[in-house]
Amino acid sequence: MKRIISLWLPRFATDRLSLRLGVSPSEWRARAFATIETGPTGPRLAAINRAARAQGLIRGLTLADAKARLPALELCEAEPMGDAKAVARLADWCGRYSPWTAVDGPDGVWLDVTGCAHLFGGEAALLEDLAARIEALGFAAQPALADTPGAAWALARFGEERIVAPGDAARVLAALPVAALRLDAETCAKLAGLGLRSVGDLEALERGALARRFGVGLLKRLGQALGREPEPISPRRPAAPYHARLAFAEPIGGPSAIREGSRRLVEEICARLAADGRGARRLTLALYRVDGTVARTALGTSRPSREPEHLMTLLDERLEGLDAGFGADALSLLAAAEPLADGQLMLDLPARLGEEEEPRVDVTETVEAGEMARLVDRLGNRLGPDNVLRLSLRESHVPERAAAFRPAFGSESDGAAAVAAVETVMERPAAERPLRLLARPEPIEAVAEMPDAPPVLFRRRRTLHRIVRAEGPERIAPEWWRSARARCASPRDYYRLEDSEGRRYWVYRDRATRPGMAPAWYLHGVFA
Amino acid sequence: MTGYAELQVTSNFSFLRGASHPEELVARAAELGLAAIAITDRNSLAGVVRAHIAAKGAGVRLLVGARLDFTDGPSVLCLPTDRAAYGRLSQLLTRGKRRAPKGECWLGPDDLDEFGDGQIAIALAPETPRLPDERFARALTRLAERFAGSCFLAAQHLSWGNDTRRIAVLAELAEALGVPLVASNDVHAHDPGRRALQDVLTCIREHCTLDEAGFRLFANAERHLKPADEMARLFGAYPDAVARTVEIAGRIDFSLDELSYDYPAELAADGRTPQDELVRLTRAGVEVRYPAGLPAKVEAQIEHELALVGQLGYAPYFLTVYDIVRFARSRGILCQGRGSAANSAVCYCLGITAVDPGRIDLLFERFVSAARGEPPDIDVDFEHERREEVIQYVYEKYGRERAGLAATVIRYRSKSAVRAVGKVFGLSTDVLGVLARTVWGQSGEGVQVEHLAERGLDAGDRRLALVLELSRELIGFPRHLSQHVGGFVITDGPLSALSPIANAAMEGRTTLEWDKDDLDALGILKIDLLGLGMLSCIRRCFALIEAHEGRTLTLASVPAEDAEVYDMLCDADSIGVFQIESRAQMSMLPRLKPRSFYDLVIEVAIVRPGPIQGDMVHPYLRRRAGEEAVEFPSAELEEVLGKTLGVPLFQEQAMRVAMVAAGFSAEGADGLRRAMATFRHTGRIGGFRDKFVGGMTARGYDPEFAVRCFKQIEGFGEYGFPESHAASFALLVYVSAWLKRHAPAAFACALLNSQPMGFYAPAQILRDATVHGVCLRPVDINHSEWDCTLEPAGEEPDTKARGGEDAKQGWGTGGPVLRLGLRQICGFREEDANRLVAAREADGAFATPASLRARSGLGAASLDRLARADGFGSMRLAQRAGLWAVCGLGPTPAPLFAQGPEGAAETPPETPTRLPVMGLGEAVMEDYASLRLSLKDHPLALLRSRLAAERAAPCNRLASLADGARVSVAGLVICRQRPDSASGVIFVTLEDETGVANIVVWQRVFERFRAVVLGAPLLRVTGRLQIEGRVTHLVADRLEDLSERLRALRSAGPGLALGQAEARYFPARSFR
Description:
The complex is a heterodimer of chains A (528) and B (1072). Chain A is built from 16 helices and 19 strands. Chain A is of the alpha+beta class and 528 residues long.
């Protein structure tokens, strides 16, 4: 008979929000918070903290309604992805109790603790310890323990009792509402309409009649909860048959203490491997930190081994990079094993797992389209994706803004779109522009007829240029929305000029009129 | 100095392109002293009437035209030189619009060829700095051949950098093809200051943010109106191109003033003149309306009217309306003229209006006036569900070429403007929502900076400030054209020669490009065919009465001045009655105590923004009650205000006050009225206020009275009621009240079948019916039809004649019984109901759910809804048993196996299942879930014992308590209102099993209990009673959410979403 814990985190999203925002618990109780998600009909409330719920806000309310009812409501975007990752981290963290853990929806974790409870002083103590630690991490927790995932799930969410003795599920479940069977809302509503409220009500009915009306799904859920039907759940990490753990009364932090603990675990595992005639191919050491995070390191061997000294040498190298944070209160070691005959020698060649071969870039190589992508990948892996940039055209009338650095990578979400945008820049609806733009327009002195005739000569760095050909003006107004300065800036009149020596320039006149002052002229680019 | 005429002007009627109103452009052109200005919107003439009016005022010459954008080939400015050419341009645009979906116009150069006679065509080179290519040259050659002598090529100097080169190339091309060059400036704004708004408009049009817009924005602000010397300077090398603009303007000999309107002429038969025909029909009508002989007063009136109509030549118009009304009558569609037409005895005799001229004083001059020279305005209301038949009749009779709906210009208002501009600035939906919510209602003032801080936004934020500034600028800009609700223009000649006709969004509708103000300005007559829900309801009610009592009624034949009807209204017993069922109206009734038809006219008019804002209501009531002497500010006003005890109540009285007491001319007063009507979107009152108040004060009136009068005119705005209009409405008030009093079952039945309409939900309508002794029967698959129906009373006592101590008057007792229709079941579809009824009528009652499914072919979801609504009563299946049976039918059998009427592929019989018994509370809640009402009981009745223990009074006890008493009541929230006229006060209406209670929540209390007031479906309110005559209000100081108790009634499992479900079952009408 299996023993399964269902850990329900009833306010996970908002608990996480409070941690994210760093709001103190007392304030959290006083201020109303909610997250919003944007659905097809606009933004709606997703997760609601207790203070907001006390004001009558509920999930699914439109943002407009919610704000009308509670103007003081504080809002954040919902982060379903972030929440999912956080649950997964918690599930990993639960590995301290059992190597077999799994994520259960957006707000739950399964733990198979079959045969583990004694390590924690019995089932009751285990549950208590689990709940206390999760609460200490800042999450509300309701765990329950039963023979099947279904029964544990039901109990965690709807039950009074926390532990169902083996074989007692039917009795306990009978009193629970049908929703405890993990049914969809529609089926629940349908059952409620028929007055079928509890699991017991369903059990009292003929199976055939139920199946006809609600499909076999309902019977399956019923069977799973009561253990009549199996419910396989795949754990987050494949369970390793060789597993050892060590808990400390006080958190440990020093490298020597961790090393000492690791040694004891390695010895324990090696003894068991020897007994089974097997050797380890891969070891994973997990450090359960007091702040609820897990630090892991793994090493592989090219050949199976059960030599504690050798394995410890390999592990020592990895321990250096292992950060215990504020301290760890448990260690565990997993081993994946292969058969190993007695007396076989080990090779002394540690492979470096988790690292790819060092990339080498041949800079003389012609960079072609595909090569470019690979180059970007390599550089990005090394330097960080945000640090690899490429220059691209941008649609803007303002010359300084006509080109932009963009991440060559493209971020996860809009990578393809960004690349596409770069490729399809519109034709610029204006006259020719110089290929080279000065980093900063350079003031010059020029002589021109008002209001908008091109200059007849200009002086730059004490050199006088006589203009023989000119075209313009191209009048470009500033992008007024960009800044307060741009708002009041005046347009510029650009001219293409050719001087008597055949050199071509791009100059502009600031159209701002300053009383009593000659207009200001600048050189902004040179034509090739 | 050389002159210049701007020939290429895009106004904001090229939606989201032009950045100035036509009026602004024209005014600026006048200021600059331009020789003329053309308005050439893109494939549109929508803005020309406004420009025309403005041009007349500003004394500048307007050229009417359009820029034709083709699906293929370069664009052309088209300027018609005379009336005939204008007609052709309009027809050309009509063709392009009729073949395209709404808002688009598909034209090809061939179309221009066809309608090109008399047009000046100015070709536009592609809008890019690149030089015109071979393709353009070819297109220009083709155009030059077609428009020999009147074809030109436009050149612009827009500071693109290569302007000189570009214009030189164009000039060369012009020379080569013999197409003279003409200067233009592609004007998009009257002033360069509109650049920011121009960019914003571009972004709105392109659905992008400013940062994304890129080259879609103009590089600079050069496309504005420029003075002649500046144009001459820019085109220094081509002085002829500038001079030619004036020359072209000189060739155009057309003004919109030439558009004349001709009434359809074919309506007079047998060679009679329209006037003869009108006289003949009027005489015939007299026979019908006055079988007992024509009263002398009315006879004189008819003579007077006919003479005036003859003199002004309006007979064809009367005949047109008569024809439409006659058609509606022939189809049994109820209709009634409203508005000033009710001032006409001829309209009464023709059957256009239904208010007997003997019942009110007529002011025919208000309707048709020789002095005003304006066409009369007849609006006709039809049953809202059947108005489309009438509209299609008009299209069919006159053809799409001769009849079209007027347009309505949809403009940016505060909310839409701030949303659109905010989006362009890339604000998040969250912030946008907050911004838009700072605007209450439809104000034209935009969002004020002060309001931002209240909403938690940073008022100092530069982008936000820009958003507010630009959205204020955007307010009033046209966004698109929509169809007028029912204003038809019908012409004798082709309508498309008057204004382009376009497809409307709605199937089978076509609209003009001009709205009602444009049509008014040009003296073009329109007929408003409007829809009115109450007419549908009254027609249904008449039909029910005819079927059950054999009595035929019409609007005019409902017995007049019935004392019992007025008794009922004095009691504020007016749920369901037209117009006077709102809370404000209901509380007015016992104060006004209507005893005659004219009292109803006043009742309808008095609870309106005008009299309320002008503070005219209380003086009137006091005078009526004899608490205040009836005196007149002056002898001249006695004539105007005599009927209403010296207090101006009607719109025309206010206008007459302006003329008599403030010295306005007739035109001035009319201008004032128009200014007020458009005040909300233009925000301009001009100097009217000073002129009005000053005028009255100068004539010796009390300044305070003058200010009140002006406020009243402001309040009338778009919503003023003239007396005749109030009279038309009052007739419907009277008729519906009569039906409620004398046929309560039929009235309730008709109301339910006309939903949605009015203020009340079916639950309240039925409650009200039972209070008056009407018996109800539940929805049943073997008895109900789609609509609610009346059934004869049976021997056995029926459910829910709630009589007893609660019944006010049991005047429905013993009458027919109301059977709820399948339409009451939420989510049940009419086509399913029709299939069910057809199957039942074909082969008799259904014996089992299986036979119902087999014979009607209803799907599982529909059967489920029927069962949830407890519709299997006649099969002796209670709600739960019915649902169990329906669920157990399994998947729908394939047709092959569905043999025989009872479905031979019957599922094997099951052993009977015992389901948990359903309590009354649960049953009631289930009823609310699927019907929004329950005939079994009221939820509050089930909660009463506990509420009584907690000393909450039933609603019907409030009136018998003392004024000022502190009391609690509990009830379902059926309505929340925040009237604009009441500053921040919320009105909540609660309902329990005994009646309703009216709650007043002051702003301060509201802020404290906001979530409860807005969210809770069941409330307990504690506060102080305010009893004034027969009007009882409870002024709340504490509000509690009791929804938990509804949940307890349902005793639902905790797995269901709490709270949400209850709110869904008890939807209250709520303000936004």
